[in-house]
Structures are given as C-alpha cells and as structure tokens.
Design goal:
heterodimer, A: about 290 residues, alpha+beta, Uridine Diphospho-n-acetylenolpyruvylglucosamine Reductase, domain 2, Uridine Diphospho-n-acetylenolpyruvylglucosamine Reductase, domain 3, Enolase-like, domain 1, 3 domains, 5-stranded antiparallel beta sheet, 4-stranded antiparallel beta sheet, 11 helices, 14 strands, about 25% strand, B: about 160 residues, Ubiquitin-like (UB roll), DNA polymerase, domain 1, 2 domains, 5-stranded mixed beta sheet, 6 helices, 5 strands
Chain lengths: ~290, ~160
C-alpha cells in the first residue's frame, strides 16, 4: 500500500514548522511517531498535501517534573513512558497505561501527544489523562495556549486543535501524596484496540477519597469522563458499597455500540466490572504511596 | 479517469548495515520498500502491511520499528539494521544460530523480524525470563510455531551471548 503523494518537510525549529502549517492550512498533517498517521495515509483515509515531520525539532522530548507539574513533550514515545519510574511511582494511571498501548514495537515510535491529537475514541492515553487531569499545550501562529483535556475531544478523530496548531506537550499537576491509579483494559490480543478499558486516578485524603478521576475507552464517540461516578466518590469513604455504586454510574456513562469486539450490553458490563477493579487497585496503591 | 499525481522526491542518505546508501526517493516511499526494492535487501519481509504483524521489523538507531510504518525520508541520516546486517563475515550471529539450533521457525516468514526484536531485547535485558521474552515479541506474529521454540531460541542466544561476554 502506498500513500498518496505529499510534500515532506522536516523543519528543525517550531517556528519553521508553524510557518509550513500556516501555508498549507488543513492540507497539512503533523508527523510525530507516525504510528496512527502512516496507516491512515496508506489506506488513503487521509491524503494531506504536506507532512510536517517534527522529529528533528529540539526540545520536544522532555519527560519529567518542573514547577510542580509533569511535562510530557511532543516527542516522548510510549516506550519512554513505559520505562519511567517517575510515572510508575507518582502518576500511577499513566504508568499503568503506557505498557498497554498497542504492541512493543509500535510503542517504540508512537508518541503520547500524537495519540491524543489523533483522538481515536479507542486511544488509551485520552482516558488516562482525563482520569488524572491534564492540559494539552498547543502552539499556533498567535502563540501558546493550554487546552484542558476535558475540552479537547469533540468527536471521533476530532479535537479543539486548529490545523495551524502543533501540540508541543502535555502538563499534569502533581497529584500529591496518597495518590495512585490504574488502567484496566480488555483487548482480544496484544496490539488490538480496547474492547473496553477504564482509567482511574484516586487521591486519598485522611483515608477518604479526596478526588477520583474515572474515564472510559472504546465505549463512546470519544474517551469519556464518567463525571457522575467521580462526583459520587469525591469525599466518600472507600467502602465496597461506594465502589460498587460508582462502578454502576460509570457503566451508565458508557455509550457502547455492538461490533465485532462485543455487544453493547457486554461492553457496558465490562466497564462496570473494570471500574470496580481499577478503583480497588488504585485505592490500595494510594494507601501505600 | 485517473488523476496523475505529482511525483515528489527527496534525496536520502541512510546507513544500512554499516554502509552509507543514498538515493532520490519519493516522499511517500515506505522504508520497507526502500530496503527491499531500492537497495535489494529482501531479508526484510512484508507481512500484513498494516502495522500488526512485525514481519518488516528492522532496527532504527538500534530500536525495533515496523518498516511498513516508517517513511524512507524519515530515516535520512539515521542507522538501519536489517537481518542481512546481523550476519557476520563468517558464520551466523548467535541469534541466527539459536533459531536454527532450537528450530525457532517453520515457514520462516516472521523470522527476520523476530530476530531483530530479540537482538534489541537482549541488548537491553541480557537475561530475560520467558515471560519477558513473550511480551517483548508480542508485536511480532508467528503463525507456525506457537512461539515455544522461538522463546527457547531467544533463551539459547541469551546464554551464548552471556558466555561470550
């Protein structure tokens, strides 16, 4: 399979990249890891006239904490997240998600920011970031702006990003002590998209749940935030009843469709069961954190 | 009526198995086609062509990638290792010897990709458990062996490499 023809640019500065994007408007696509974009080009689902490869731009590879925030640069690969002790220890849901994205070889090239910008409703990072809370940093012709992750996804493969903008990174506020998370995913085999998956972040406060973040993968037109379940848990004692009731609310928030991965009813039930499991795992880990 | 596409080309220079190779390529040319057709290195196989099977795995600056999902122009100035590059001047690379000794293949289609992924694994983790091996090769699909002998081959190569070091 061959992509349709395109002009290829490999700028070495962000300003240069932004200029090219301005010139081509929505006829250009940004190429980072390429693990979603190149398959689309080959299938000719996408046929942009220009590709702007950002891999040769310095300064986009940061994964670390600065000023009380985690920063994930535009060129940080899934692989790097998978090997990060910082994510495992302090940003549990992100550390748990990284090794479950696609397969190990795809993870060597694919990027977190690219995955989020691609906005596949079956993408894993969207849910993880919705659960923990994040901002997507976009640079455009008129400067930089921070988009709260829960305002990013407009629909399948559609985001609040402008065609002239580049995602330069993601920021996550330090969740503080007694926090952890989990990502529980059902896939038919390694590398398949999720049949359904649940991302959970929990911050404990004096033994109660201070903040709970819950988001769902593969059961809606975008990654979905299970707001009612989150609200029901905020300030609650982490009892069996509270967990079971939140899991039911999360299942209610799902909008699954019947497809070859399973029936809508099945997926909704998976969401309920996985929300319970993810909450229990997160609460147990947060107590140790 | 078919629309004539404008041919967009670009020069690339890639170090392939230690040798610099230059060519003027179409921007849309995939790395796997560059290796197989432009350079004639047909050890890299095309399996699914959809980023699933890993038959086209090569090392890009030492890291396994699916060469059907990388553009040749992206490899400009970088280092590629294909299965041809594993083989020393005389004999076989320890991973090749191990796949042969343990019968880690039947049809052989996935083998070049399996071996390159294994070489990268062993560089990072010289003594992997069988569980770690199975996860490491989970992006490489084999339809013949049931993976048993592939795992044995990787363990065999690990032992050989440890002895040699």
């Amino acid at each position: 399979m061959y992509p349709a023809s395109f002009e290829y640019f490999a700028p070495t500065t962000l300003d240069e990249a932004l200029e090219i994007l301005e010139r081509f408007g929505d006829e250009a696509k940004v190429l980072a890891g390429g693990q979603s974009l190149i398959p689309l080009l080959k299938l000719r689902v996408a046929a942009p006239s220009a590709l702007v490869d950002i891999n040769r731009i310095e300064g986009l590879g940061e994964l670390g904490e600065r000023d009380g925030q985690l920063r994930i640069g535009a060129l940080v690969r899934h692989r790097t997240c998978e090997r990060s002790d910082l994510l495992k220890e302090r940003y549990g849901v992100l550390g748990a998600t990284a090794p479950q994205v696609s397969d190990p070889i795809v993870r060597n090239l694919g990027t977190v920011c690219g995955s989020v910008a691609h906005a596949d409703p079956q993408g894993d990072w969207g849910s993880a970031l919705l659960a923990i809370g994040a901002e997507v940093i976009a640079r455009g012709p008129s400067g930089e702006r921070a988009i709260p992750i829960d305002e990013l996804f407009n629909g399948p493969f559609m985001t609040a990003l402008q065609p002239t903008e580049i995602v330069t990174g993601i920021r996550v506020a330090d969740p503080g002590p007694r926090s952890s998370g989990a990502y529980v995913k059902l896939e038919r085999r390694v590398g398949d998209f999720a049949t359904a998956a649940v991302a959970v972040h929990v911050s404990l406060s004096n033994g109660s749940i201070g903040r709970a973040g819950i988001a769902l993968t593969g059961v809606g037109p975008t990654n979905l935030k299970a707001r009612e379940a989150e609200q029901a848990l905020a300030g609650a004692e982490p009892t069996d009843e509270a967990i079971a009731s939140a899991a039911r609310l999360a299942a209610d928030a799902a909008e699954p469709l019947d497809d070859n991965r399973g029936s809508a009813e099945y997926k909704r039930n998976v969401v309920r069961v996985f929300t319970e499991r993810a909450l229990r795992a997160s609460i147990a880990a947060a107590r140790e954190a | 009526m078919a629309v004539q596409e404008a041919l967009v080309t670009r020069p690339v220079t890639v170090s392939v198995n230690g040798t610099e190779r230059s060519a003027e390529v179409e921007t849309r040319l995939l790395l796997v086609h560059f290796l197989r057709e432009t350079l004639g290195l047909t050890g890299t196989h095309i399996g699914c062509d959809t980023t699933h099977c890993g038959a086209c795995t090569v090392l890009l600056d030492g890291v396994p990638v699916k060469s059907c999902t990388v553009l040749a122009v992206q490899a400009d100035g970088r280092e590629i290792t294909t299965v041809e590059g594993l083989t020393p001047a005389g004999g076989l690379h320890p991973i090749q010897e191990a796949f042969s000794a343990e019968h880690g293949l039947q049809c052989g289609f996935c083998t070049p990709g399996m071996m390159l992924t294994s070489v990268a694994l062993l560089a990072e983790n010289p003594d992997p458990t069988s569980e770690e091996i199975r996860w490491a090769i989970s992006g490489n699909i084999c339809r013949c062996t049931g993976y048993q002998n592939i795992v044995k081959a990787v363990q065999h190569a690990a032992a050989t490499l440890k002895e040699a070091s």
